[in-house]
Amino acid sequence: MAAADSSFARLVSLAAHDLRTPLATIHGFAQTLLRMGDLGEPKQRYMEMIDAASRQLAELLDELGTAARIESGRYEPALQELQSLELAQNAAGHLGEDRVKVTGEGTDVRVDPEATERGVSALAQAALRHGGLDEVSLHVDGPRLAISPVTASSAPVVLGDDLRDLGAAVAVLVVRALGGSVERAGETVTITLPE
């Protein structure tokens, strides 16, 4: 069974890689047309939608590729020292300051910055989306980042146990692959990053 799992993970990784070329073409032409100036309505709006959708597809392919590499044992994170408070602020910035309030004090952690930032953002977004919330807090205490509130119904999704959110599921895989943990206590999900 392990060989089948490994070959499936390899297939997913290959598909994610191969899909990047046509996606890059779509994104590139959308960017070119947008740089040409006002295309007039509704063409301008449609091009902006195509551009945004191509970015979103690229992020999804990154998530699939990362998950496949982790599952097949081929994940080689680009580890760097990073301040956990800065990481939390950057992750929250993707969702907006009005949706994620960052507090606390950080410390240096050793992580793959891009994957970890994307993961923390995905976990906060999953808590918002699947919990029906308008706002969550992200409290930083050294290497620990605590997201709250996380509702009882959304907790299995945020923890990656209920596979309804690709970003959250991959985030948990990434944090654990780096040697950290993602755990729930009450209405709080705590991400502990390696120092």
Strand order of the largest sheet: 2-4-5-7-6
Q: What sort of overall outline do the alpha carbons produce when their principal axes are compared?
A: globular
Approximately what portion of the residues adopt beta-strand conformation?
Answer: 15-25%
Structural class: alpha+beta
Number of helices: 6
Calculate Rg over CA atoms: 18 Å
Q: What's this entry about, in short?
A:
The protein has 6 helices and 7 strands; from the N terminus they run ααβαββαββααββ. The protein is α+β, with helices and mostly antiparallel strands and 195 residues long.
Question: Could you please describe the fold and organization of this structure?
Answer:
It is a single chain. This protein has 195 residues and is an alpha+beta fold. The chain is 55% helix and 19% strand. It has six helices and seven strands. The chain has helices at residues 2-35, 43-71, 84-93, 113-131, 155-158, 166-177; strands spanning 80-83, 100-106, 108-111, 136-142, 144-148, 181-185, 188-192. Strand 4 and strand 5 (144-148) form a beta hairpin. It is globular, with a radius of gyration of 18 Å. The two termini are 35 Å apart. The model has no long low-confidence stretch (mean pLDDT 90).
Entry keywords:
single chain; about 200 residues; alpha+beta; 5-stranded mixed β-sheet; 6 helices; 7 strands; globular
Task: Furnish the topology, listing elements before pairings.
Elements (H helix, E strand, L loop, with lengths): L1 H34 L7 H29 L8 E4 H10 L6 E7 L1 E4 L1 H19 L4 E7 L1 E5 L6 H4 L7 H12 L3 E5 L2 E5 L3
Parallel strand pairs: 2-4
Antiparallel strand pairs: 1-3, 4-5, 5-7, 6-7
Helix pairs in contact: 1-2, 2-6, 3-4, 4-6
